[in-house]
């Protein structure tokens, strides 16, 4: 078959959401001729739900994406309108960044980046089927019948695969409210023997800001000392506040009275929704005793009056939505601009994938984002980035980039999906990471920049910032460790000692003759001189050093554990083992192992209900085979 | 002193085949005196060179001249790893009791790495136990669960992983799955383990909720954390203690024979043992020290303790003996309190009142008694009924019952008790030996009328004692979750982590640190409650805490 050169690419990315953006940017930036196909070029990087990036564990993902050379961090730093650090009162290892985006600016920014990237072609169309020859992907066929050919295809279809929107008992086919659904691609995936499942997610109604009475509501401001997501960003600007209100008994009563009109409770919706982001009707039914639920009112854009009432995802009929909204303080006269809705969509069971995100059954076909059963822009972007990188590495005949669970949340995310699969939209939580103290937001650059650089994705600007920080950090750490026989070092080990307080107080001492209480003990001149040297280092670096010192014991313990666990990664369990044939395993264990088919002992060890004794038996089995 | 080290040096034995009828049983003996014990109880008949299957024993009747052995061939002449056919000989009664196969393995070429013997008797329940009893009497002790494998591990015959795996196979992988598989008796235990797992998950989930959902409103979460962690602490501690109890009971329940001097305590012991173990005489206070004997009652090993008579004495040695008797009584599971029926006088038998006082009211021991109360059984035995005529006996009996009613009736505050038959009398004749233990009021002592001289009702007492033992053991079992020292250690480590977590919480340390301690704590329990995955934690989190910003 003769193919016009114009229709031939190295990589085709289907979809231009958060996964698609990172996928097409990474492959084109890695030098591959890439096409991105989207149903609507005006909705590149659309925030279909919450107009925000980051949050617990998600902020970690954004910084990891940035350290590997992705775009998301830069985009939100530029287009964010409120930035906050979460968990400041809890431990430093679980601090996380969150930003409200101006969703229109964000889209514009992303479209501009894509349009100005070399090797990248933007196409508005819909993919109807895959072209597969000998279990290897060759390209896609568009709904117009035109064909595009490529050595690798990355599908990032979001909620578009046979998307079905529900508002009350009314439903219609759509990829999201306002966009076409992709109705044929699922069939093509099934024809290629990929196993599909169906999930559900939902979003809140959007409210007209002019009809909200903010005067009664609690205001939530941004943090000005926020450290930007991207290594390349100098600073961020807080431009708006968010507001907090609460549901009440009246709200709950209206919801309860109208459950018969809820597609969720009538059995109309078959897909499985996320437990961590339940609809308001779910919350009211499941937590009867809770008197109120918190609602955050978040502005979607500087140039728009639309507000996103975070915490009110619902698929009740429009009339009911309005009725319960108007029971809420500040929303007594509210008008709905867009109704909340639920959406059902197809996903591919992620156990169909390798850790590289390539499908096991079709060579060079990669999947990323909600099509793998995840939820969230950051989770999608992380996978898009990895799929783009690994598709490129594959075409370059290089080994894939597979991050360990001890190296990145991205590693945890992908490993969880591939090993355990998921039955609900998968969201990242810090509790999913075994080595939470190692995988911090603040050290994402130290963990991943060298990888980003090695694969050729991390630009000079970001790499140099990382290098500088890395040097400063080591200097600061050395200084603290060696100064005054380690006195400062030992002091910083205490949980109540704050390095920035020491730094600030020592600066003050120079200016006053007062003997200020830096610590319980009166300060000697030597100590004052010691602390004054802290001013040579930036707050960010000092905080990092302090954190490292405070948690050193635990961190070393986790590192030891990783070393031990890594050993088990070398014990491979064949996919064809019938665990029934291994004597000594209990029925419960056999059932689980046969279902999940772990690739290594390391993976088996993470499965719920597997006993150490069962692991011992598997080890003996492996030894025997060797 | 019975040190741990001594324990390791004991020669141990066990029936290795499952309980019940089978073609053959296997009794294993391991330790330095294994051969010595065998030479006491085995008479070698011939060598069977063709032994390769168990069937060989059955075929061994075909005499093979090659396998004839010289006269006076003794066990110590046996070649290691050769199969011999032998008679089992009870040297206490000078009689051959069974025919069996026998193999000896010389250290270190055995499973445990010690001298080991295996005896293959016929597979009856009774004869196998009888032989085991014989071995026990000859100097071995009963092995703990998995002790052979443990020795194999200690002697570097197998590594820890193999040891655990082998034990695992025996125990169908985890205590929990064993228990689930086993019987409903253990339902209570299973639910206990589930509560431990759930509580651990709950407190961990509450910490994780605080970390991962900083903008949610969680009401009373710290209160719940402390409440649940305290409850969890108690549960784990209880399991650790149940292990200690279990180990104590492994060696048999303690049955103390107590009573005033010359009530016939030593005679009763001798009746039980079927031999003259204690010196008996008509002189009160003959037994000044206590005598402890292991006794095989049907199929149960018990420790029976003959104590010094309880009376006020000026003799220092005797006084010390009496004090010690109270100690023994406290530690015993069953007390057989003997009274000479010819001398019975409740108003002056202070010792009986004393004993009930000691058991019920001693404040120092209140805690101990609370825990042990249900399991401690008092049986009052009136001895020497042979000395009374039938009429006298009848009269005495009704008087005794009246007296006991008035004494113990007041101890039972429950009004309903009046309607119950709370004197459980097991009378001389026509007594149904199948006493339904469950119908017996636990607060009221049992009464028996016996004679150690004319053997009257001794068998009924024995049967009753046996039933009581079964009953107590099964009630103990409900509390036993862990059966190996390793598991106990894991629980202790887990408890340590939990304690760290609670302290960290109280000291307002970072949540991720508390989480690490809790996760370590759960990890130590993998053996007992199975692996806990992140998904389990999240399941609990979403179940218990309303999330949804």
From TrEMBL, chain A:
Domain of life: Bacteria
Domain tRNA uridine 5-carboxymethylaminomethyl modification enzyme C-terminal subdomain: 549-620
Gene3D superfamilies hit by this protein: FAD/NAD(P)-binding domain, GidA associated domain, C-terminal subdomain, tRNA uridine 5-carboxymethylaminomethyl modification enzyme MnmG/GidA
Entry GO MF terms: flavin adenine dinucleotide binding
One GO term of the biological process aspect: tRNA wobble uridine modification
Annotated binding of FAD, by residue: 15-20
Cofactor entry: FAD
SMART domains (UniProt xref): GIDA_assoc_3
Keywords: Cytoplasm, FAD, Flavoprotein, NAD, tRNA processing
InterPro entries found in the cross-reference section: FAD/NAD-bd_sf, GIDA_C_N, MnmG, MnmG-rel, MnmG-rel_CS, MnmG_C, MnmG_C_subdom, MnmG_C_subdom_sf
Subcellular compartments: Cytoplasm
Signal peptide start-end: none
Segments passing through the bilayer: none
Pfam families tied to this protein: GIDA (PF01134), GIDA_C_1st (PF21680), SAM_GIDA_C (PF13932)
SUPFAM superfamilies documented for this protein: FAD/NAD(P)-binding domain
One GO cellular component term noted in the UniProt record for this chain: cytosol
Positions contributing to NAD(+) binding: 273-287
Record-linked PROSITE patterns: GIDA_1 (PS01280), GIDA_2 (PS01281)
Assembly notes: Homodimer. Heterotetramer of two MnmE and two MnmG subunits.
Similarity annotation: Belongs to the MnmG family.
Function recorded in the entry: NAD-binding protein involved in the addition of a carboxymethylaminomethyl (cmnm) group at the wobble position (U34) of certain tRNAs, forming tRNA-cmnm(5)s(2)U34.
Protein name: tRNA uridine 5-carboxymethylaminomethyl modification enzyme MnmG
Organism this protein belongs to: Candidatus Acididesulfobacter diazotrophicus
TrEMBL record, chain B:
UniProt keyword Transferase, yes or no: no
One Pfam entry name: MMR_HSR1
Residues where (6S)-5-formyl-5,6,7,8-tetrahydrofolate binds: 28, 118, 157, 549
Positions of K(+) binding: 262, 281, 283, 286
Residues where Mg(2+) binds: 266, 287
Domain TrmE-type G, chain residue ranges per copy: 252-470
Coiled coil regions in record: none
GO cellular component labels: cytosol
List of residues binding GTP: 262-267, 281-287, 306-309
Enzyme type, top EC level: hydrolase
Keywords on record: Cytoplasm, GTP-binding, Hydrolase, Magnesium, Metal-binding, Nucleotide-binding, Potassium, tRNA processing
Compartments, as annotated in UniProt: Cytoplasm
Biological processes per GO annotation: tRNA methylation; tRNA wobble uridine modification
E.C. code: 3.6.-.-
InterPro entries for the chain: G_TrmE, GTP-bd, GTP-bd_TrmE_N, GTPase_MnmE, MnmE_dom2, MnmE_helical, P-loop_NTPase, Small_GTP-bd
Role this protein plays: Exhibits a very high intrinsic GTPase hydrolysis rate. Involved in the addition of a carboxymethylaminomethyl (cmnm) group at the wobble position (U34) of certain tRNAs, forming tRNA-cmnm(5)s(2)U34.
Complex formation: Homodimer. Heterotetramer of two MnmE and two MnmG subunits.
UniProt xrefs under HAMAP family: GTPase_MnmE (MF_00379)
Name this protein carries in UniProt: tRNA modification GTPase MnmE
């Amino acid at each position: 078959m003769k193919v016009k050169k114009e229709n031939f690419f190295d990589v085709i990315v289907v979809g231009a959401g958060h996964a698609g953006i990172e996928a097409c940017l990474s492959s084109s930036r890695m030098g591959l001729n890439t096409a991105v196909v989207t149903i609507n070029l005006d909705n590149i990087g659309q925030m279909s739900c919450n107009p925000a990036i980051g949050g617990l564990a998600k902020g970690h993902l954004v910084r990891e994406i940035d350290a590997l050379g992705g775009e998301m961090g830069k985009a939100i730093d530029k287009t964010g309108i409120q930035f906050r650090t979460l968990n400041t009162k809890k431990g430093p290892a679980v601090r996380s960044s969150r930003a409200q985006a101006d969703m229109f600016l964000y889209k514009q920014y992303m479209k501009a980046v894509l349009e100005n990237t070399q090797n990248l072609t933007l196409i508005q169309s819909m993919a109807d089927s895959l072209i597969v020859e000998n279990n290897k992907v060759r390209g896609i066929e568009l709904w117009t019948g035109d064909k595009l050919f490529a050595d690798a295809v990355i599908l990032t279809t979001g909620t578009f695969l046979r998307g079905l929107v529900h508002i009350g008992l009314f439903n219609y086919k759509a990829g999201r409210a306002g966009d076409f659904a992709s109705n044929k691609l699922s069939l093509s995936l099934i024809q290629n023997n990929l196993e599909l499942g169906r999930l559900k997610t939902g979003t809140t109604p959007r409210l007209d800001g002019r009809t909200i009475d903010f005067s009664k509501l609690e205001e939530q401001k941004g943090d000005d000392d926020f450290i930007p997501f991207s290594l390349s960003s100098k600073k961020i600007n807080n431009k708006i506040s968010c507001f907090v209100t609460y549901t009440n008994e009246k709200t709950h009563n209206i919801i309860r009275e109208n459950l018969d009109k809820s597609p969720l409770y009538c059995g109309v919706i078959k897909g499985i929704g996320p437990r961590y982001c339940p609809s308001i009707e779910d919350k009211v039914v499941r937590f009867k005793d809770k008197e109120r639920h918190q609602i955050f009112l978040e502005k979607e854009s500087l140039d728009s009056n639309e507000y996103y009432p975070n915490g009110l995802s619902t698929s009740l009929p429009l009339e009911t939505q309005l009725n319960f909204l108007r029971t809420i303080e500040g929303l007594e006269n509210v008008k709905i601009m867009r109704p909340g809705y639920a959406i059902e969509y197809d996903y591919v069971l992620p156990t169909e994938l390798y850790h590289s995100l390539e499908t096991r059954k079709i060579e060079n076909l990669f999947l990323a984002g909600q099509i793998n059963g995840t939820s969230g822009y950051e989770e999608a972007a992380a996978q898009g980035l990895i799929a783009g990188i690994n598709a490129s590495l594959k075409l370059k005949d290089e080994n894939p980039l597979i991050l360990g669970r001890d190296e990145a949340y991205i590693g945890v995310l992908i490993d969880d999906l591939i090993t355990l699969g998921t039955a609900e939209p998968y969201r990242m939580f810090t509790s999913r990471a075994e080595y939470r103290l190692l995988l911090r937001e603040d050290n994402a650059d130290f963990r991943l920049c060298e990888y980003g650089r090695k694969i050729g994705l991390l630009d000079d600007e970001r790499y140099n910032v990382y290098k500088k920080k890395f040097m400063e950090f080591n200097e600061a750490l050395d200084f603290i460790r060696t100064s005054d026989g380690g006195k400062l070092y030992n002091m910083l080990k205490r949980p109540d000692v704050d390095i920035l307080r020491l730094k600030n107080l020592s600066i003050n001492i120079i200016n006053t003759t007062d003997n200020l209480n830096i610590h319980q003990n009166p300060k000697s001149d030597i100590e004052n001189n010691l602390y004054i040297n802290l001013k040579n280092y930036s707050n960010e670096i000092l905080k990092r050093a302090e954190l490292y010192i405070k948690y050193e014991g635990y961190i070393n313990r986790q590192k030891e554990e990783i070393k031990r666990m890594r050993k088990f990664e070398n014990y491979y369990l064949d996919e064809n083992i019938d665990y029934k044939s291994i004597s000594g395993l209990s029925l419960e264990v056999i059932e689980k192992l046969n279902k999940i088919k772990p690739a290594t002992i390391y993976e088996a060890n993470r499965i719920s209900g597997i006993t150490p004794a069962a692991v011992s038996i598997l080890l003996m089995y492996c030894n025997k085979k060797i | 002193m019975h040190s741990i080290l001594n324990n390791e040096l004991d020669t141990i034995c066990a029936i290795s085949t499952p309980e019940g009828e089978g073609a053959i049983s296997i009794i294993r003996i391991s330790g330095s005196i294994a051969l010595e014990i065998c030479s006491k109880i085995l008479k070698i008949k011939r060598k069977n060179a063709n032994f390769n299957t168990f069937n060989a024993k059955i075929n061994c009747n075909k005499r093979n001249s090659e396998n004839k052995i010289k006269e006076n061939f003794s066990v110590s002449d046996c070649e290691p790893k050769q199969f011999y056919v032998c008679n089992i000989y009870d040297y206490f009664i000078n009689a051959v009791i069974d025919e069996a196969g026998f193999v000896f393995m010389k250290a270190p070429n055995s499973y445990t790495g010690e001298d080991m013997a295996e005896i293959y008797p016929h597979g009856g329940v009774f004869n196998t136990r009888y032989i085991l009893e014989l071995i026990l009497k000859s100097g071995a002790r009963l092995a703990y669960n998995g002790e052979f494998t443990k020795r194999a591990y200690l002697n570097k015959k197998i590594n820890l992983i193999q040891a655990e795996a082998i034990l695992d196979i025996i125990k169908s992988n985890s205590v929990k799955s064993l228990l689930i598989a086993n019987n409903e008796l253990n339902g209570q235990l299973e639910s206990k383990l589930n509560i431990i797992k759930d509580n651990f998950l709950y407190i961990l989930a509450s910490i994780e909720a605080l970390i991962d959902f900083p903008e949610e409103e969680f009401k009373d979460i710290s209160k719940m954390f402390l409440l649940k962690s305290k409850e969890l602490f108690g549960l784990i501690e209880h399991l650790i203690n149940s292990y200690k109890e279990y180990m104590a009971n492994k060696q048999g329940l303690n049955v103390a024979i107590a009573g005033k001097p010359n009530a016939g305590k030593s005679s009763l012991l001798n009746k039980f043992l079927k031999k003259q173990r204690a010196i008996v005489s008509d002189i009160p206070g003959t037994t000044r020290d206590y005598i402890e004997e292991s006794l095989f009652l049907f199929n149960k090993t018990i420790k029976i303790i003959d104590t010094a008579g309880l009376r006020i004495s000026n003799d220092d040695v005797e006084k010390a003996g009496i004090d010690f008797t109270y100690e023994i009584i406290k530690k015993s599971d069953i007390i057989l309190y003997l009274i000479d029926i010819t001398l019975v006088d409740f108003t002056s038998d202070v010792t009986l009142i004393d004993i009930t006082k000691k058991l019920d009211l001693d404040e120092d021991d209140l805690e101990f008694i609370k825990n042990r109360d249900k399991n401690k059984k008092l049986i009052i035995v009136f001895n020497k009924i042979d000395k009374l005529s039938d009429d006298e006996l009848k009269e005495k009996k009704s008087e005794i019952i009246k007296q006991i009613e008035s004494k113990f009736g007041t101890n039972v505050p429950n009004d309903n008790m009046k309607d119950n038959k709370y004197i459980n009398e097991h009378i001389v004749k026509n007594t149904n030996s199948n006493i339904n233990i469950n119908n017996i009021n636990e607060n009221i002592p049992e009464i028996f009328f016996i004679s150690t001289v004319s053997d009257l009702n001794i068998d009924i007492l024995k049967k009753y004692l046996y039933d009581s033992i079964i009953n107590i053991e099964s009630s103990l079992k409900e509390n036993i979750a862990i059966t190996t020292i390793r598991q106990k250690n894991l629980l202790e480590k887990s408890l340590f982590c939990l304690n760290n977590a609670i302290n960290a919480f109280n000291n307002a340390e970072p949540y991720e640190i508390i989480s690490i301690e809790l996760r370590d704590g759960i990890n130590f329990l993998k053996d007992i409650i199975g692996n806990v995955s992140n998904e389990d934690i999240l399941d609990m989190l979403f179940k218990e805490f309303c999330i949804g910003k």
